[in-house]
Amino acid sequence: MAKEIERKYQVKLDAWVPQGEGIHFKQGYLNSQKERVVRVRIEGTRAKLTIKGITTGVTRSEFEYAIPVEDAAVLLDNLCEQPLIDKHRHKEVHFGKTWEIDVFHGLNEGLVVAEIELASENEAITLPAWAGTEVSSDPRYFNSNLLKNPYTTWNKA
């Protein structure tokens, strides 16, 4: 069984400068229950169907399959929960580990988070200067929850 072990951090916007344009992502959810998430995503010129299980700690089951972009577009427009997630993803290597930095648009404008995939939950990492507060266990930051409770609606007091 495939496992995803991932930590997520807020990005300090005053310390991070994008290196390039990144890749445009458009994604939606056929199912966004916390026990199982079924996601459709177009990443630039490729598309994927991803199934994820419930998160325990920072680990969950994950199964991912390439699908035709045309099929993904139909699923996103006609079957996925709305609104869709719209973001640009940037990748940066820090101390030999690849970080994925997501810059959200639309109803999640202003949200920028960084994720790092790990080999184990206990794996030691060195945080980049732009990595802020860890939000791995805060369900508000799950992409599947951002469509129900967009960042622009959060009380940021």
From TrEMBL:
<dbReference type="InterPro" id="IPR012042">
    <property type="entry name" value="NeuTTM/CthTTM-like"/>
</dbReference>
<protein>
    <submittedName>
        <fullName>CYTH domain-containing protein</fullName>
    </submittedName>
</protein>
<dbReference type="InterPro" id="IPR033469">
    <property type="entry name" value="CYTH-like_dom_sf"/>
</dbReference>
<dbReference type="InterPro" id="IPR023577">
    <property type="entry name" value="CYTH_domain"/>
</dbReference>
<dbReference type="Pfam" id="PF01928">
    <property type="entry name" value="CYTH"/>
</dbReference>
<feature type="active site" description="Proton acceptor">
    <location>
        <position position="29"/>
    </location>
</feature>
<feature type="domain" description="CYTH">
    <location>
        <begin position="2"/>
        <end position="148"/>
    </location>
</feature>
